């Protein structure tokens, strides 16, 4: 297991470049197996999730070549291979292989993704979608076995109960080669959905309406990648650095952002009093003065992202007066970070899944645990602000989703490092939930 060691209290300044979006990347890599030709992804973040997905591809004889931020995926020799529970449980996003394998081979055997640290995460809408396309879905020995009929999948109209990111992506991947038209109603509208649709359309798929409530897919025979695809910047990583900059920055410029993707987050931090200058594809965050508390309610895009409620929480605690409230409507149980923040001196409570934040004069270093990636980001920000040393256990969860985090923070002047946990040598960091 990894630990992150932070010697806090150092003001940070300078420039930071945002990497490709994790939540696009973890869908685009499985989607690559839909191509008959080599796929080139640019702007791929250096995160542990990518390494784990490459391991899964290797099991299917898909060759990967990852240099700098360019990942080439060659699926020409791909072999249909079951992905058992062990692997998928250590990487939730590998459930995208359900849609991708189904679209490519008409069959997928994938381990059942488990529950996790942010509460229950059912996949009933994914399964409903596969069944509507004509697939038979069975759950045997903790594995989901999905089989298309003899004559292949057919288009269907699918109305999602909620605009699920994962279900929308999985149904798109399964239906791009189905016969006829598929319509997804109440589809998720997150920028990562548009990124997937752009990627697949450039390979010959016909997907219209991505980014709106209704997505229409006309099935095609096969897909062939012809041009490189550049992954959109990670809006959650960008939001995390905005929070870092406002909490402990002495002037930080954040490059490679799409401002529109951050609208609701920027509105909230500006409501608090943070001053930000926006340029074409960068933002400059001024050192924060006296901030005021705000209320945060997470929602689907373009609402305030659930993945940013934890990274904004340390910022709320820097406000001088009032009470801040955080309510996560997407994952109401995403509250594991609160007890850890309390260990660092934060004046924060949670009752009935409602988080109440109060002004905290100072944080002190402590040993805390990152139950999942965004809880880790929250504790990391608190650690950067805190007096003394903070040790974050299970810090592998941070490395799974934050591109070259140690390098980027050090460049801004932070004193941070990662090391193996001496108390738990050789044990893999546990499952998280991104
Ligand atoms: N839901 C269902 N049934 C389903 C699918 C979803 O009830 O079949 C519920 C979920 O329990 C949740 C809501 O619908 O309450 C939304 O879930 P969604 O399916 O949109 O989430 P996801 O696809 O599992 C992705 C991201 C998460 C991010 C959410 C919401 C990836 C790999 N994961 O999860 O990212 O929080 O969308 O935007 O893209 C993270 O990066 O830290 C992370 C957890």
Outline:
This protein has helices at residues 22-31, 48-59, 85-89, 96-105, 124-132, 165-175, 191-201, 235-248, 263-272, 309-317, 337-343, 373-385, 396-399, 405-411; strands at 2-7, 12-17, 39-42, 63-67, 70-74, 107-111, 136-140, 143-147, 157-159, 181-185, 206-208, 215-218, 229-230, 249-255, 276-278, 282-285, 295-297, 324-327, 348-351, 354-357, 367-369, 389-393, 415-420.
Overall description:
- With 434 residues, the chain is α+β, with helices and mostly antiparallel strands.
- It has 2 domains: 2-19 and 233-420, Enolpyruvate transferase domain (UDP-n-acetylglucosamine1-carboxyvinyl-transferase, Chain, Alpha-beta prism); 22-230, Alpha-beta prism (UDP-n-acetylglucosamine1-carboxyvinyl-transferase, Chain).
- 30% of the residues lie in helices and 23% in strands.
- The chain has helices at residues 22-31, 48-59, 85-89, 96-105, 124-132, 165-175, 191-201, 235-248, 263-272, 309-317, 337-343, 373-385, 396-399, 405-411, and strands at 2-7, 12-17, 39-42, 63-67, 70-74, 107-111, 136-140, 143-147, 157-159, 181-185, 206-208, 215-218, 229-230, 249-255, 276-278, 282-285, 295-297, 324-327, 348-351, 354-357, 367-369, 389-393, 415-420.
- The strands form 6 sheets. It has a 4-stranded mixed β-sheet. A 4-stranded mixed β-sheet has the order 2-14-16-15. A 4-stranded mixed β-sheet has the order 4-5-3-13, with helices on one face.
- Helix 6 links the parallel strand 9 (157-159) and strand 10 (181-185).
- The chain is globular and about 65 Å long.
- The mean pLDDT is 94.
- The chain binds uridine-diphosphate-2(N-acetylglucosaminyl) butyric acid (EPU).
- Uridine-diphosphate-2(N-acetylglucosaminyl) butyric acid is lined by residues 23, 26, 93, 121-126, 162, 164-167, 188, 306-307, 330-331, 373-374, 401, 433-434.
């Amino acid at each position: 297991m990894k630990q992150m060691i932070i010697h806090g209290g150092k003001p940070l300044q300078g420039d930071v470049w945002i990497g490709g979006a994790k939540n696009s990347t973890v869908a685009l890599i499985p989607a690559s197996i839909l191509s008959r030709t080599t796929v080139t992804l640019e702007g791929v973040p250096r995160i542990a999730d990518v390494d784990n997905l490459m391991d899964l591809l290797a099991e299917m004889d898909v060759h990967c070549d990852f240099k700098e931020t360019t990942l080439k995926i060659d699926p020409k020799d791909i072999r249909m291979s079951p992905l058992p529970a062990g692997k998928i449980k250590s990487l939730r996003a590998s459930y995208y292989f359900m849609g991708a394998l189904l679209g490519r081979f008409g069959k997928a055997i994938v381990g059942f993704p488990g529950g996790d640290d942010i509460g229950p995460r059912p996949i009933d809408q994914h399964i409903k979608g596969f069944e509507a396309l004509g697939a038979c879905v069975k759950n045997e020995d903790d594995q989901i076995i999905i089989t298309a009929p003899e004559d292949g999948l057919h288009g269907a109209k699918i109305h999602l109960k909620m605009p699920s990111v994962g279900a929308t992506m999985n149904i798109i991947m399964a239906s791009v080669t189905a016969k006829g038209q598929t319509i997804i109603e109440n589809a998720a509208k997150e920028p990562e959905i548009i990124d997937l649709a752009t990627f697949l359309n450039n390979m010959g798929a016909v997907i219209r309406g991505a980014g709106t409530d209704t997505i229409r897919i006309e099935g095609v025979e096969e897909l062939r990648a012809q041009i490189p695809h550049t992954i959109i910047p990670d809006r959650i990583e960008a939001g995390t650095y905005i929070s870092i900059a406002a909490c402990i920055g002495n002037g930080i410029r954040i490059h490679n952002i799409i401002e529109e993707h951050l609208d609701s987050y920027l509105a909230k931090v500006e409501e608090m009093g943070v001053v930000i200058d926006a340029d074409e594809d960068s933002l400059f965050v001024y050192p924060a003065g006296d901030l005021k508390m705000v209320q945060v309610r997470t929602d689907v895009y373009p609402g305030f992202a659930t993945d940013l409620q934890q990274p904004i929480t340390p910022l709320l605690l820097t406000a001088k007066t009032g009470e801040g409230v955080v309510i996560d409507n997407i994952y109401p149980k995403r509250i594991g970070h609160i007890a850890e923040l309390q260990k660092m001196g934060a004046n924060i409570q949670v009752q009935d899944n409602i988080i109440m934040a109060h002004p905290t004069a100072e944080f002190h270093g402590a040993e805390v645990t990152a139950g999942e990636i965004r809880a880790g980001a929250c504790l990391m920000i608190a650690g950067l602000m805190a007096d003394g040393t903070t040790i974050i256990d299970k810090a592998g969860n941070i490395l799974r989703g934050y591109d070259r985090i140690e390098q980027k923070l050090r460049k801004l002047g932070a004193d941070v490092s990662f090391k193996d946990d001496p108390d738990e040598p050789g044990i893999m960091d546990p499952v998280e939930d991104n």
